Amino acid sequence: MDKHALRQLIVERLAEDFDVLQRAAQTAYETATHEENVAENKYDTLGLEASYLATGQARRMEEIRQAMGLYQQLTLRDYDPARGIQVGALVTLEALDGAVQWLFLGPEAAGLKVPVGERLVTVITPRSPLGQGLVGKFEDDEVAIVVAGIQQTFTVTDVR
């Protein structure tokens, strides 16, 4: 799997999300400022709610804009067995039950899922529990995290 192509897919997906949010924020803004939505009493909150929604969407747009910039500037390196897993690594994990997952350790956009062929690659960041556990690990290392009080153990089977 080519990490450069994966990075491009992530940037494209972020751009799509940005466009959707931009249209939604514009609609919320128009609703908030429309003359028919001026509050007539303290219980008439449609304009206020639309204003809050537009503000939240604008913040999310800025987060996505920053994430796109970070991915466009991200220098992708081959896996260095001397340094272990770092940001920009494409990691394959296998759980004790044999379930396999593909992860991209990125600077932002945690939780984003990108289909690559028949695989689904999930973006995680070093700030997540799994991301923290992976940084500095090597192929064949085990990574254990606790989620909702339950310990989960994975083996790093491949790093690129």
Automatic annotation (TrEMBL):
Transmembrane segments: none annotated. The keyword S-adenosyl-L-methionine does not apply. This is GreA/GreB family elongation factor. Coiled coil: none annotated. Keywords: Elongation factor, Protein biosynthesis. It comes from Pseudomonas eucalypticola. GO terms for biological process: regulation of DNA-templated transcription elongation. InterPro entries: GreA/GreB_C_sf (IPR036953). One of its GO terms (molecular function) is DNA binding.
